Amino acid sequence: MTQLISHTAAADFVIKGWATDALMIDCDTRITAFGSCFINNISKWLGRCNYRVSMNEANAQDAYVVRIGEGMVNSFVIRQKFEWAWESRRFNEALWHGYDKGNIRL
Fold first, then answer.
1. Rounded CA gap, 6 and 1, in Å?
2. Which residues are registered as beta bridge partners of 53?
3. pLDDT of residue 70
4. Number of Cβ atoms within 10 Å of the Cβ of 81
5. CB count, 10 Å around CB of 70?
6. Cα–Cα nearest to 65, from 74, 76, 75, 55
7. Exposed e or buried b for every residue in 24-63, given b needs 16+ CB within 10 A?
8. Full-model pTM
9. CA 97, CA 88: separation in Å to the nearest integer?
10. Which residues are paired to 103 by β-bridges?
11. What's the 3-state SS for the chain?
12. How far apart are CA 91 and CA 84, in angstroms?
């Protein structure tokens, strides 16, 4: 238990064996995160650490995924967002409700 108190405990006992030798992201990698208020706070923290976070870019609020990011809190909504973005799928039913309780159509 005393080893788990160390500031390197996560790297030594959790990440070891899973992490690559090369960095997966650096400060120039654009990071878009969505799904919950937890992720919103992680994005803010990454921004303060000088990472390129989409929510901090000039036209970020033009993208609905950024504006309502913390409102997408289940796997079905996130799957639909990926289908819309990568497969150009269109859905007939109203999707995600915005903060103003309005229906959103993509």
1. 10
2. 31
3. 60
4. 21
5. 17
6. 55
7. eeeeeeebbbbbeeeebeebeebeeeebbbbbeeeeeeee
8. 0.53
9. 20
10. 97
11. CHHHHCCCHHHHHHHCCCCCCCCCCCCCCEECCCCCHHHHHHHHHHHHCCCEEHHHCCCHHHCHHHHCHHHCCCHHHHHHHHHHHHHCCCCCCCEEECCCCCEECC
12. 8
Size of the chain in residues: 106
- What are the boundaries of each domain within the chain? 25-104
Location of structure tokens 């803010």: 44
Tens-binned pLDDT, residue by residue, of the chain (106 aa) = 777 788 888 888 888 888 888 888 889 998 887 767 787 788 889 999 999 988 777 777 666 566 666 666 677 777 877 887 788 887 776 655 555 556 555 5
Contact assessment for residue 31 and residue 51, using Cβ atoms and an 8 Å cutoff: yes
